UniProtKB/TrEMBL annotation:
It comes from the Eukaryota. The keyword Protease applies. Signal peptide: none annotated. Keywords: Hydrolase, Protease, Thiol protease. One of its GO terms (biological process) is proteolysis. It holds the Pfam family Peptidase_C1. GO terms for molecular function: cysteine-type peptidase activity. Residues 35-100 form the Peptidase C1A papain C-terminal domain. It comes from Schistosoma japonicum. This is Peptidase C1A papain C-terminal domain-containing protein. Belongs to the peptidase C1 family.
Amino acid sequence: MRRRAGGSRSAFKRQNVQLPKKNLTSAMMLELLALPKEFDWVNRPEGLRSPVTPVRNQKTCGSCYAFASTAAIEARIRLASRFRLQPILSPQDIIDCSPYSEEQSPSIQSI
């Protein structure tokens, strides 16, 4: 934790600001109860398109970070454009520009 947070546990606790607690009104409770118990971006109800692109095979090159990032950005662009834009982004561009690329290693421990 220290290495990633850049400080001690006590320094982290001092910076950890709590959101103010809010009493739930009956209207808020009704809204919460109306939410679905589960949500699946891939298997959407009939008539709703999925922003999720097909799975890509990254093989053993240790580039899961690039594949996950491009898939998330592609989905976000589809949603934001209401599916007018259908980008297919390149994980290879991220890998080629990354100083942390493992070059065909199945491990990404250096990140």
